[in-house]
Each structure stands twice: as C-alpha cells, then as structure tokens.
Amino acid sequence: ALTIGIVGLPNVGKSTLFNALTKNQVLSANYPFATIEPNIGVVNLPDERLDTLAGLFSSERIVPATVSFVDIAGIVRGASEGEGLGNKFLANIREADAIAQVVRGFSDGDVVHVEGRVDPKSDMETINTELILADMETLERAITRYEKEVRGKKLDAAVLASAQEALAVLQAGTPLSAASVDLEPIKELGLLTSKPFIYVFNVDEEILTDAAKKQQLADLVAPAEAVFLDAKIESELIDLDPEDATELLQSTGQEESGLDQLARVGFDTLGLQTYLTAGPKEARAWTIHKGWKAPQAAGVIHTDFEKGFIKAEVISFEDLVETGSVHEARAHGKARMEGKDYVMQDGDVVEFRFNV
Ligand code: GDP
C-alpha cells in the first residue's frame, strides 16, 4: 500500500490531524483491507467520476483509490542526537513512500509552542535539519558496516560509494531529494530526506481565507506542495453529515476538506494516477504509477491478469459518458483495443482480456 508518514514539532496538530484521518477510515466502509490497524489513517481519493460510472452501470458499490498515513513522529531540536533515539522514533516513517510535515500556523495562546513562538519558516528548518542529521546517522552506521562487507568481498563497492556520496551531500546541509546522487543501491536504508515531501500548514480560519498569506507560505516550500487546513475543523468535519460539512467548509472559504486535498496532493506527489473499472458489482479506481503500461496496470487487479495479459479494451471516461454505455461506445468506434505497450492514461475505463 502507498503510505505517507507524518512528522512535525510537538504541539503543531499532528495528533489532531491523525485522529481525523483514522476516524475517517472507520467511516470509509469500502476500505479494501481486511485488517484495519489502529495506527493507520486512510483517506479516499475524491473522484466524482466513480459516482457517474456507478450510475451508468448500476454498480452496487464504489471503491475509490486510497492514500494511507502510517504514523506520526514528533521531532524536537536535537532529537537525532540522543543515542539514536530519533532514529528509533522514525522507524515507521522510514518505510513510508513520502513524508508530510505538519507546520503550525495557528496562533493559540493556550497551546504552548515548543520554541516559544509561531514561526513556520524556522520550524521547518528545525525539522529539516533533524531529518538531515537522522539520515547522516543512518549513513554513518551503514558505511561502517558496508566497509567491512566490501573488504570481505560480500558487498559491491558501488553500494559503499553511493552511501559515501549521499553522506557528503548531507554534510553540506542539502537534503538528498535536492541532489543527484544515485540512491538505488542504498534504497534499503529508507533515507528520510530522499522521500518526496508535502507541507501541511495547520492554520486558523484567518489564514485559510487569506490567499496572499497562503501564497507566501507556499512559496517558502516550493517546489514541494503545500496543503492548508485547520486540523481542529478537520476533526469536526468527520462527525458531520455531508450537508453540514459542506456548509462548515464554505464558511471557512474552502471547497474541499483538507483531508481530500491531502489525498490529492499525496497522490500527485507520489507520481500516481488511477484507471477505472465498472460493472454491476462495483465502480472502482485502481492505483498505478504514471507511465505504467497495460499489463503492469492489469497486475494491480490480479497477478494472473498481468501474466496472461492479451489486450485491454479502453474507453476514455469522457467518451463513455458521452455515448452512455459500453455498447454505444463500441458502436461509435470509441472503444479501443490496446496491446501490451499501451501506456495507461488517467481516466481510462478498462476491461482486460487475459488467458488463465
Ligand atoms: P501534536 O503534538 O503535533 O500531535 O499536536 P496535537 O494535535 O496534540 O495538538 C496540540 C494542541 O493544539 C491540542 O490542544 C490541539 O487541540 C491544539 N490544536 C491542534 N490543531 C489546532 C488548530 O488548528 N487550531 C487551534 N487553535 N488549536 C489546535
């Protein structure tokens, strides 16, 4: 599953946001995994096309794509120093595909800020420095081990070289995502600063409705994506019925909830897209990487679909809606038979043909 880890200073609203995420999961009846773990929060990727498809096919249920949030790690200045404590703390985050950094933008005198004042820029620097230090520690340990293994001819010297190169980048204060080191050989280390980053600004209503202020904050983190939300409002939204939720959102100048935005941005940051399937049982979105070809995409449904792939019948969502049915789409030449080299497009409605 595709996962995002949450980091941030204490008292910035991580738990509040995570609670909203985990409550959300309980309500998401279509959550496709059998065992729901308490420390995983799931958001559905909002996709109105699924409602349309479910209407066309009289589908019994809708199964949207999801993004999972795995864990939260509170990080304070110096966290990476204490006997690898920081490292242990970050174990789950290391396995995540991306990191969402929650940054406090709300000012509430009752909620103590660990560093004494609300200053998003300085907070982000603190966190990013700690992540760089944590990666350096990981690399230093790994390098000691790699050196022994290379001497004993148990390890390719390229792995050691890659680790040394990465360490040099970090020593210069640069996160790995901003450098051009080949990290493939040391992927197992799960280096934090090599992961895509999303910045989640937890702000109050005043900032939510202030486009200029939001732009200012977004500029601080560009080219990384920024999401603006009010964690307290998010946790309230979860308990409201859809109409009241829409009303509350509109009263704070938002069109969609922060959790929805987070899912969308997370998906994008991870380089993902969906294709769609529809039938009387379900209208469903399947998660793939951008650029995947038809057989690989088929493999997401079932490995047999990939192994026995023959071809895919593809109708674009727009064409399907315009013609009104698969039958009509075929009659109008809008259904394409695509082979194994076809690169999947966002919004393809697909039926795979395969050998068993
Ligand atoms: P964490 O330490 O980062 O997990 O922070 P928490 O989620 O525990 O939040 C710390 C305190 O800030 C709690 O008392 C929250 O109720 C409060 N808080 C969280 N988000 C907001 C917010 O958007 N606005 C305000 N005013 N308070 C918030």
TrEMBL record:
Output the PROSITE patterns linked to this UniProt entry.
G_OBG (PS51710), TGS (PS51880)
GO CC: one term?
cytoplasm
Q: Which residues bind ATP?
A: 11-16
Specify the TGS domain's residue ranges: 271-354
Database matches in Pfam families: MMR_HSR1, YchF-GTPase_C
Coiled-coil residue spans? 129-156
Q: Where is the OBG-type G domain?
A: 2-249
What InterPro entries would the database entry show? Answer: ATPase_YchF/OLA1 (IPR004396), Beta-grasp_dom_sf (IPR012675), G_OBG (IPR031167), GTP-bd (IPR006073), P-loop_NTPase (IPR027417), TGS (IPR004095), TGS-like (IPR012676), TGS-like_dom_sf (IPR023192)
Q: Which SUPFAM superfamilies match?
A: P-loop containing nucleoside triphosphate hydrolases (SSF52540), TGS-like (SSF81271)
The source's superkingdom equals: Bacteria
| Names of required cofactors | Mg(2+)
MF GO annotations: ATP binding; ATP hydrolysis activity; GTP binding; metal ion binding; ribosomal large subunit binding
Keywords tagged on the record? ATP-binding, Coiled coil, Magnesium, Metal-binding, Nucleotide-binding
Query: Does the record bear Nucleotide-binding in its keywords?
Result: yes
Function noted in UniProt: ATPase that binds to both the 70S ribosome and the 50S ribosomal subunit in a nucleotide-independent manner.
Q: Which family does it belong to?
A: Belongs to the TRAFAC class OBG-HflX-like GTPase superfamily. OBG GTPase family. YchF/OLA1 subfamily.
Q: Return the HAMAP family for the record.
A: YchF_OLA1_ATPase
Identification of the protein by name: Ribosome-binding ATPase YchF
Q: Which organism is it from?
A: Paramicrobacterium humi
